[in-house]
Amino acid sequence: MADEKVKKFASVTELGTNLLLRNFLPKYFGIPSYLILSLGTITPKESRKEGGGNILNFPDFMLSLDEKFRCWKIMRSKIKNLIQTITGTSRSGEEPIWAGDGVFLSLFKEIEDRTLVSIDRCFNLFQLARYAAHREGDIAEVGVYRGGTGRLLARTCPKKTIHLFDTFSGMPETDGEIDLHKKDDFSDSSLESVRAFLEDCPDISFHPGIFPASAAALRDRSFCFAHIDVDIYQSARASLEFFYPAMVPGGVMVFDDYEWEGCPGIKQALDEFLADKPESPIITTRYQCMLIKI
Q1: What confidence category does residue 178 fall into, taking pLDDT thresholds of 50, 70 and 90?
Q2: Burial state string for 187-223 with b = 16 or more CB within 10 A and e = fewer than 16
Q3: DSSP annotation of 166
Q4: Which residues, including other chains, have CB under 8 Å from residue 206's CB and lie 6 or more apart?
Q5: Is 39 a residue whose pLDDT tops 90?
Q6: Which of 67-81, 165-179, 193-207 is predicted with the least confidence, judged by mean pLDDT?
Q7: φ and ψ at 239, to 5 degrees?
Q8: How far apart are CA 73 and CA 124, in angstroms?
Q9: How far apart are CA 30 and CA 33, in angstroms?
Q10: Can you tell me the distance from the alpha carbon of 155 to that of 253, in angstroms, rounded to the nearest whole number?
Q11: For the residues of 16-56, what is the DSSP string, one character each?
Q12: What phi, psi does 50 have (nearest 5°)?
């Protein structure tokens, strides 16, 4: 069942990508096709290297469905950033709300090659972390990958302790009935490389391993903000079970990939967990939502 869903989604995304690159960007944003294609290509093998690259030639990497899915997530972010950053406009044609925020734009330049999170979702993280930082408690991120959004949180909230949870070696075991990702996806990172990227950030605590076992020593800590970017059901559910009771009143939990077809377990975990809770997800932008602890 899961494989059929992957095949269907992969074929749709391949078609959509071709249309976007060949028609939408040149027609509606005036970006010449030669400029789009000259920005770079990437293969699945190259995408594992540190630094990655621009993914703009999607039909070239047809090696496996797993690779296609992993690369599509990176490309989704790259294309969105291409539209909004190079053209300086949003999908409506208006200047994006972060265009005049020099502090955020400076921070985003530091992290854009180390994250898959699009610029609009990063701006939401930036704003919400600043809001939450006035409350008691620490800040956490589950799903650090290459450290981009972890750095964003640390630089935005320098007076807070930042806890970063990840295997730092790729995706843990997944459930084939729910998740479309597989074990060891996103393995193009390491604890050493993330430490080096964040070495100038104050008060960061690294927690390598499988969550929530990696958080066992923090059961008595309180949190004002948590960014959950885990892609799979079990990790999302574990994050809710750990952080929800640890959140201070007014604390914020932000979930990436909410309602994205590639990560159906995120919405399922939230729907199930919140069924008997007073809070409801608040959609901040496409594929991102937040909870405010009552």
Answers
A1: confident
A2: ebbebeebeebbeeeeebebbebebbebbeebeeeeb
A3: E
A4: 164, 168, 191, 194, 195
A5: no
A6: 67-81
A7: -65, -40
A8: 19
A9: 9
A10: 18
A11: HHHHIIIIIHHHHH---HHHHHHT----HHHHTSTT-----
A12: -60, 135
Crossing angle (nearest 10°) for helices 148-156 and 102-111: 150
Domains in the chain with CATH codes: 2-86 (no CATH), 102-292 (3.40.50.150)
For strand 288-292 and strand 282-285, is the pairing parallel, antiparallel, or unpaired?
A: antiparallel
pLDDT in tens, 196-227: 999 999 899 999 999 999 999 999 999 999 99
CB 251 within 8 Å of CB 244: no
Residue 227: beta bridge partners? 141, 254
Q: Across residues 142-169, what is the average pLDDT?
A: 97
Confidence of residue 175 (pLDDT cuts 50, 70, 90): confident
Contact between 232 and 263 (Cβ < 8 Å)? yes
Q: Which residue do the tokens 């990437």 mark?
A: 42
Q: Where are the alpha helices (DSSP H) in the chain?
A: 2-19, 25-29, 33-38, 44-47, 65-81, 102-111, 119-132, 148-156, 191-197, 233-246, 264-273
**Both structure tokens of 79:** 């294309």
Instruction: Tell if the pTM clears 0.85, that is, is over it.
Output: no
